[in-house]
Amino acid sequence: MTGGSHREISRVLAEQIHVLLGRTVGKPAGEAPRILVVGLGNAAVTSDSLGPKVCRNLAVTRNLLPEGRVSGIAPGVMAQTGMEAAEVIRGIVRETKPEVVLVVDALAARSVSRLGNTIQLSDAGIHPGSGVGNHRNGLTRESLGVPGPALGAPPVARAAAIVCDTVEALGDVLAGRPETETVSRILEEMTDAEKYQFIRELLEPRFGPLFVTPKDVDDTIERLSYTISEGINIALHGEA
Predict the structure, then answer these.
(1) Which residues lie closer than 8 Å to 202 by C-beta, 6 or more apart?
(2) Percent of the chain whose pLDDT exceeds 90
(3) What are 70's strand-pairing partners?
(4) CA-to-CA distance for 17 and 31, rounded, in angstroms?
(5) Residue 35 predicted with pLDDT over 70
(6) What pTM was estimated for this model as a whole?
(7) Contacts of residue 4, Cβ cutoff 8 Å, sequence gap at least 6
(8) Cβ–Cβ contacts within 10 Å for residue 171, how many?
(9) Cβ atoms 88, 40 nearer than 8 A
(10) At what angle are helices 181-189 and 159-174 packed, to 10 degrees?
């Protein structure tokens, strides 16, 4: 997401946001819905600051134009506010009456190859903190009263995911050796989900739910937040 590719990625993301909003809201092509963009996360923790940073770069218009349709909020985390993000957002939805809530959050990668370079979109809403074991009330159509599509990217990976990728690579090495063929065959017979769960059951009782982030996470978050916010701005306002 550097250099000349950044703008192209934002354009592609904007196209996918159009598709996502069209599927969840059902607005005619070219007509933007009244939308509230929610940036989840803790702005004081780099690896969890994706949502607030996206909101910082968002082009909001509800306060500027009579026909302004875009508003944004970074509600913070429960440790800062004493409130669930879902409680805060439900109150805002009741007062401002958006047609859709687009939630942006940092995710935890299930594969190292996706760390810092994948953007995920979903029309099923999101459960804040579920990727790192902090289960909070969900932000979904059912809980908000309006569609709650979600968008996120993973700046962290669970340690079990790293070990799982390592075991996968180890299995490829063992497959070429007659003396370790049995072990290789056992690994091949397990699904990815089974391997991941097995490794979690081995690691976490001893070491806890460890999460790993790359050393350049500051730059990663800046690039991701800028790319995502620009994609949202293009989707909602068009290109400047």
Answers:
(1) none
(2) 43
(3) 35
(4) 13
(5) yes
(6) 0.83
(7) none
(8) 18
(9) no
(10) 130
Residue listed under structure tokens 């090495």: 173
DSSP assignments along 17-82, one per residue: HHHHHHHHH-PPTT-PPPEEEEE-S-TTSGGG-HHHHHHHT----TTT-TT--EEEE----HHHHS
- pLDDT at residue 1, as a whole number: 47
pLDDT tens figures, 209-219: 888 898 999 99
Task: Compute the distance between CA of residue 60 and CA of residue 70 in angstroms, rounded to an integer.
Answer: 5
Contact (Cβ atoms closer than 8 angstroms) between residue 217 and residue 155: yes
Give the SS3 label for residue 190: coil
Task: State the chain's mean pLDDT as an integer.
Answer: 86
Pairing outcome for strands 150-158 and 100-109: parallel
**Percent of the chain with pLDDT strictly greater than 70:** 90
What type of residue sits at position 126? I
Contact criterion met (CB below 8 Å) for 8 and 226? no
More confident residue, 3 or 55: 55
Q: Is the dihedral of CA 1, 229, 123, 142 positive or negative?
A: positive
* pLDDT number for residue 103: 95
Structure tokens at 224: 């991701």
